[in-house]
Amino acid sequence: MSFSVLSLPEIEALVLAVLVENGLDPAQARAVADTVTRAEADGCRSHGLYRVPGYVAALRSGRVNPAARPSVRQVAPALISVDGDGGFAPEAVRCGTQALTDATRRNGIAAMAVGRCHHFSALWADVEPFVAAGLVVWAYVVGQNSVAPHGGTRPLMGTNPLAFGWPRPGTEPFVFDFATSATARGEVELRALAGQDIPAGWALDAAGQPTTDPAAALGGALLPFGGHKGSALSLMVELIAGPLIGELSSQAVAGLGITDGGPPPGGELFIALDPAAFGTGTTQAEDIFAAALSQPGVRLPSERRYRARARSRTAGVEVATTMLRQIGALRARA
Ligand code: NDP
Is the predicted pLDDT of residue 257 greater than 90, yes or no? Predict the structure, then answer.
C-alpha cells in the first residue's frame, strides 16, 4: 500500500474543502474538520479521514441538515440541553461546551444532553475541552446497533462508547475512551478493508458462532467487552444516552434502514464535576498515577495518543494514497 505524508493543516484544509463543496455550512464543516484532523493527529484512524466519505454521503442523501444551527438552553440550574438542529455532532457539542463548563462551575456538578445530531466521532475529542477547563467529565453515546447482549447472539445494543477525563496538574490529563463492545465497529471495517482477521472474542457470525472473519462479524454481532460486565455497561449507555435524553435507541436507529454509511442520528450525554467544589482538587491523585507508572509495563490510557499527537505536529501523518484519491473524488462533484 502506498502512502502520502500530509501535515495537520493540510488534512484540515482538505476536509473543510470537501465538506463545504458538498454544501455543508462552514461552521459545521470547521467542527467536523477539526474532529477528523485531531483523530488523524492522535493516530485514531478509525475516526479520521476514513469517516469523510460517510459525512459526505449523509449530506448527499439529504439526511443531515447542511445549514444546522445548534441552539443551547439551560433547562435547570445544572442541566444544559443542546438541539443539534439535525446537523453533525461536533458543532453541537462545541456550541454547548462553554454552557456546561459554566453550569458545572456554578453548581459543582452539571449535565448536558446533546440531541438531534449525527455522531460518529471519538469521544476523547469531546471531553478534552472540559478537562482542559479543570473539570472531571464523563461522556456517553449510543453507537451503531451491532452488539449482542452477554449470552445472546443478535445485535441489541450499540457499540456505545463512554469516555472519562481527569485533569492532572502540569501534565497531560488522564483520559480513557472506548466502545463497550470488544472493539469499535470502525476497527472491524478497517480490518475487512485490509483483508485482516479480527481477534477471537470480538464477534459472532450471523449463525451465532464465534468468528475471526471481519465480514462475517459485520453481518453477525459484535460482543461486549468483559462478558456480562461490559454488557451491563453497554445497556447503561443505551439507556442514558438514548431514552433518558429523548434520543433513539440503537435498535430504533437500525430500524430506520440507513444505508448511506454516514453517522447515525442520536445524541450524547455529558456529566461534569468541578473538583474544586469538594475543596480537594486533583493533586492528591498524582500519587495513584505515580504508583501505577512505577510498575514496569504499565502505561496510562491516552499516552499513545499524546505521543502520536506530538509526532504528527512536526512529522505530519501518513495517509493511504487510495483514501486520498477516494476523498479527492468527493470534491469533483461540487
Ligand atoms: P481502544 O480499545 O482502541 O482504546 C481504548 C482506550 O484504552 C484508549 O483510551 C486507549 O488509550 C486505552 N488503552 C489501550 N491500550 C492500553 C494499554 N495497554 N494500557 C492503558 N490504556 C490502554 O478503543 P475502542 O476500539 O473501543 O474505541 C475506539 C474509539 O472509537 C473511541 O475513541 C470511541 O469513542 C470511538 N467510538 C465511537 C462511536 C460513536 O458512535 N461515536 C462508537 C464506538 C466507538 P490510547 O488511545 O492512548 O491507546
Answer: yes
